[in-house]
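Model it.
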Amino acid sequence: MARRDSLADSKLTADTKSERNQERPGKAKTTTTPTASWRNTFISLRHRDYLLFWLGMLGIMAGMQMQMLARSYLVYDITNSPAILGIVAAGSAVPMLGFSLFGGAFADRFDRRRIIQAGQASFALLALAVAIVIVTDRVTWVYLLIAAVIQGIAFSFMMPARQSIIPQLVPREQITNAMALSSAAMSAMTLTAPAFAGLLYAFAGPETVYFIISGLGFGAIVFTSLISLAGTDRARRKRGSVIKDVGAGLAYIKSNNIVLVLLIIGLATSVLAQPFRMLMPLFIVDVYELGPRAMGLLVSAMGGASLFGALFVASISNWRRGMLLLI
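Modeled.
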């Protein structure tokens, strides 16, 4: 009797060990999930059209970061006026805020790739015009203000088209990853482009910076022209009144508390936090008594944390995000 109990206990112990061994592969699989996620961080770049779009955007982002540094430093160098520096900075921000709703309505009606190319062309041509004005020694803050206003209008149409074209370039399950990689491209350029622009400005002058910015814009046009949407862009276009769509968009924002709160947060950040970068020449020149090289390095220092955050979002595209990403 005791021997039978002993055999039963031995069998029970063996069965328990067997069940534990069967559970181990599941645990191992769970622990390797983050590694697999990091391997999939750049999965959207495997799609040819998105890769071309991303490379074109990379050029525009690099040019934009270089221009923000060169323009603000040049305006303050010419005028030595904080007020005029703020006016020129608002020259691009106000049109972008005012025309963005119309830009979204246009993106629903017209070829998004063409809208993006038009914005890239205006960016390249404006940079070329500013470079020529500097070379001919005719540059004034008024020219820079006019260029900023035109660019702000162009970007208010290009940016909604740029965001809304992404679902046409990648599968549905990779849209979050593609959006995050777009943000990572901007963060990477914030990390590198200002430092490069500061060095160029110090050793070769602002005209060289603007010529390179123009070249980046024309290069972006080439990459974007190679994108093939295979007729999907034409199939989804809307018809009707642009004004009605803008009104419907405003009504939706008013009725949806989540969208309204997110809009207020974004607006508050843009108005209260980001303008310090436009006013940075005041601190660099008047407080620290340094030049464009120091300003470039200081601006680039801001890009590291934002780049890490964007890559983190890209790597967790299959997780439940919620408040984690908002924080």
